[in-house]
Write a structure and sequence with these properties.
Blueprint: H1 5-19, H2 48-56, H3 58-65, E1 73-75, H4 78-81, E2 88-92, E3 95-101, E4 107-111, E5 116-119, E6 122-124, E7 129-135, E8 141-142, E9 146-149, E10 154-157, H5 163-167, H6 188-191, E11 197-198, E12 204-205, E13 210-211, E14 217-218, H7 222-225, H8 248-256, E15 262-264, E16 279-281, H9 303-308, H10 310-313, H11 337-343, E17 348-349, E18 352-353, H12 359-362, H13 374-378, E19 381-384, E20 388-391, H14 400-406, H15 412-415, H16 421-431, H17 441-451, H18 457-465, H19 470-480, H20 487-496, H21 502-512, H22 525-532, H23 536-539, H24 546-558, H25 563-575, H26 579-592, H27 598-609, H28 613-626, H29 631-643, H30 647-660, H31 665-683
Helix pairs in contact: 2-3, 14-16, 17-18, 18-19, 19-21, 20-21, 21-22, 24-25, 25-26, 26-27, 27-28, 28-29, 29-30, 29-31, 30-31
């Protein structure tokens, strides 16, 4: 096993020894002070800098050492890891996995489908489940979808009941899928490592297709949340005095780097930076990821829900409720103490008065019951990784009337499982005659319609004009960007391009397209990126824009170990006129995700633009073989066939698309046009 922190320990200890001197000022080098007690951490010596922090900050260090953050990554332990590998088996995704320990004490995982044996080398987490990392052939690590339930003492497949797959009517992840545990979607280095280590660097070599990843300390330790100075200050602290006071928002942004469903634009974030300068937050713009009211539906974590909520818009952050060192709640949630800390007396929170709530009058459920707890109604739990319950942070109120109309979750029925939405709606109407939910219903309906292929541009624009929460304005603009731009949509985007919130400006840039060219100078990276990518073919030829082009290339190269990054590099190469290079990147994208459709479609479009229609057809036929039940694929196939004047086959492809999705407007339009064309020419 490679123990990566040992060289770091030596280097860091040396740097501290050079800087720390004894009390007489004579210049003698003294050993750095380190925490000398016994903490709950699995291996204190694995965190050399944090151990020094513990010398002065004993209480904080001991709180952290017992936290889930401290256990986010650990080495194998005979005491903890013997049982899972004691001749256990699991059937999952068409394979049988056997877990054993050999005579040398190595913990082995045998996958019958691939016929390969893997050695477990690190452990992720500790409760309610753990995952084991096994080495990949490219120098990185796989995270098997088999996880160990520490309570039930059994292996299970984390993707059992996968919400996203179920929403799309797809089968469980199979060998060859991007999301299969041996696929690039379960690559630990790009998908997990930032949030399980401190000062992680991916170090991916795209040319060699290899990782040489490294980190300074395992787990989320002191150095991940406190910005280190280049050298200790006069008091021996590794955190300079000027860096010891962060705003609550700065600390929150640091939490969000892990507690968010997001796209990583680079690995340069350090404490004190803005989240939006390094990550793009996922919003409710893809069906199956979030519910239309912003509630979590898949593994969505906390940040999106919080930003969509009134509490988040008012400035509530992680640290208002959570102890930053234990990550536990500051007050109990079981007796509503945490919520009532603010809502009992209308406390001002970040200059915003909180609504006064009397739980006895507010809740219809008996005092002491589960339903009388604020969190059960406003922060319901959903399982992550099949068995890890996480609370929703969008702070929605139950709205059974809308649940009945749109099929959204209804928290009332979690307890009253023998009832239905209609019963719950009647109860809510009687108890809350002045339902505040009613004012949010138009937004939820508009988003729900858009997510389910029933776009109503006027409906979305009306909601946008009255929406006070920035993250919802950004969501609506992102949805509008998926449709043809009407003059009214463009005008709304122009107004939004001057919004104070970066998420809104970025969404506006996606709507504006060419008009967003000037926004490449925006101070926030997510806005520059949204404005730059659609305009790359202009920017690469503008000398004054080369810094932003280089920035975009940096994003693409950082993501180049994933199909998305490879396609971004292909787009950039195309804009520069380097077509051979672009083609190599498109092929790499397909190699990284052979079961996905986007790589095939984008490659086919690229080939068609070069006049290589026959080659484009080959890609679309391969795409149709991969996704035979996808309406968009058959529509695209029909377009290529029409370009080749294979009209009868094209018509059949459009008809197949409409069989799969009768509401596919472009397939309907092209089928009608082709039928009219064929009729006209047959008469001639």
């Amino acid at each position: 096993m490679r123990i990566k922190w040992l060289p770091v320990l030596t280097l860091l200890a040396a740097s501290v020894l050079v800087s720390c001197r004894d009390g007489d000022g004579g210049g003698a080098v003294a050993a750095p002070a380190v925490y000398s007690g016994q903490s709950a951490h699995w291996n204190q010596q694995a965190v050399p800098v944090s151990l020094q922090c513990g010398a002065c900050h004993v209480k904080e260090f001991e709180e952290w050492a017992g936290s889930d953050h401290a256990w986010a990554l650990r080495e194998l332990s005979a005491e903890s890891d013997f049982e899972p590998f004691h001749r256990q088996k699991l059937k999952a995704h068409g394979s049988e996995i056997t877990f054993t320990a050999n005579r040398e004490g190595k913990l082995l995982l045998f996958d019958s489908q691939s016929g390969r044996t893997f050695e477990a080398q690190y452990v992720l987490g500790r409760r309610p489940l753990v995952q084991y990392l096994v080495p990949a052939e490219d120098g990185g690590y796989h995270t098997p979808s088999a996880a160990w339930d520490v309570t039930r003492h059994e292996w299970f497949d984390m993707f059992e009941g996968d919400a996203r797959l179920s929403a799309e009517g797809l089968a469980a992840r199979q060998a060859g899928d991007w999301g299969h545990w041996l696929g690039r979607g379960m690559n630990w280095n790009s998908q997990c490592a930032w949030c399980h280590t401190s000062h992680f660097r991916k170090n991916y070599d795209a040319t060699a297709n290899r990782y040489a990843s490294a980190w300074k300390e395992p787990g989320v330790s002191c150095i991940q949340c406190h910005k280190l100075a280049d050298a200790p200050s006069a008091d021996g602290c590794m955190v300079a005095p000027a860096q010891r006071t962060l705003t609550q928002q700065q600390m929150h942004d640091n939490c969000a780097t892990c507690h968010a469903r997001r796209e990583e634009l680079d690995e340069n974030f350090v404490v004190g930076n803005r989240f939006d300068n390094h990550f793009r937050l996922e919003l409710p713009v893809i069906n199956g990821v979030f519910w239309a009211n912003g509630m979590q539906r898949d593994e969505d974590y906390c940040e999106t829900g919080l930003r969509l909520s009134r509490m988040g818009a008012a400035g509530v952050t992680c640290l208002d409720c959570h102890n930053p060192h234990t990550a536990e709640l500051k007050l109990p949630q079981e007796d509503n103490s945490l919520c009532m800390r603010c809502h009992a007396a209308g406390t001002m929170v970040h200059s915003t008065p909180t609504p006064i709530i009397n739980p006895a009058e507010h809740s219809p459920c008996p005092e002491g019951s589960a339903g009388a707890r604020c969190v059960e109604c406003h922060m319901p739990e959903s399982p992550y990784m099949a068995r890890d319950p996480r609370r929703d942070h969008s702070f929605n109120s139950p709205d059974p009337e809308l649940s009945a109309e749109l099929g959204l979750p209804n928290t009332c029925l979690r307890c009253h499982s023998d009832k239905d939405h209609a019963w719950a709606a009647e109860v809510v109407r009687k108890l809350y005659p002045k339902q505040k939910n009613a004012e949010y219903r138009p937004r939820t309906r508009a988003v729900h319609h858009a997510l389910n292929g029933r776009f109503n541009v006027d409906e979305l624009l009306q909601v946008l004009a009255n929406e006070p929460v920035p993250a919802w304005r950004a969501t609506i603009l992102e949805l509008l960007a998926q449709q043809p731009r009407t003059p009214a949509v463009m005008q709304a985007a122009r107004v939004a391009s001057r919004d104070a919130d970066a998420l809104v400006r970025a969404a506006a840039a996606r709507v504006l397209g060419r008009e967003a060219l000037s926004m490449v100078q925006d101070p926030v990276k997510i806005v520059r990126r949204a404005a730059a990518w659609p305009n790359l073919h202009y920017l690469v030829h503008m000398p004054q824009a080369q810094s932003v082009v280089q920035e975009m290339e940096g994003i693409a190269r950082h993501q180049s170990d994933q199909p998305t990054g490879a396609m971004l590099l292909a787009e950039l190469a195309t804009a520069r006129g380097r077509f051979d290079e672009a083609e190599r990147y498109y092929k790499r994208a397909i190699t990284l995700d052979p079961s996905g459709i986007v790589g095939y479609i984008d490659y086919a479009v690229f080939l068609a633009q070069l006049g290589r229609i026959e080659d484009a057809l080959v890609q679309m036929q391969a795409c149709a073989a991969v996704a035979p039940d996808n309406a968009e694929v058959h529509y695209r196939l029909g377009l290529v066939l029409a370009e080749l004047r294979r009209f009868e086959e094209s018509l059949a492809a459009f008809e197949r698309a409409l069989q799969l999705d009768p509401s596919h407007a472009r397939a309907q339009k092209n089928k009608l046009q082709l039928e009219q064309f064929l009729q006209t020419h047959s008469q001639k």
